[in-house]
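Morning. Coffee machine broken again, so started the prediction first thing and wrote up yesterday's gels while waiting. Chain of 107 residues, entered below exactly as on the submission form.
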Amino acid sequence: MSKQEISFNTKLSEQIKTRADFTYKISPTVVSIFDTGLGQRSVTEDIEAVLQKIEYWHQGSISSFKVMCWDGKGFWNGVQWDGKTASFFALQETDERKACKRLLAGD
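Came back before lunch.
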């Protein structure tokens, strides 16, 4: 396979299961995750499975991305992700754009 080809794994039986319901968007540097509140658990409670599911959908690691998630209480939190474990840090923002700026400023 050349470096310009993209292949997709279509084995749906391998899909990661999450108990949180979420939407997300991805930019070249940031993954923003929004908890819909419709899952059995919150994104915060199920963060590792949520991040693994995003990696499954994108068929690659997102550990090089900056990650933030909306916690359902109105606040954005940063997420440190190494591909196995996740930890949170406060961004102290309710506005997504401001949270993203603060996340990127942490470089």
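Helices lie at 47-58, 96-105. Going to sketch it on the whiteboard this afternoon.
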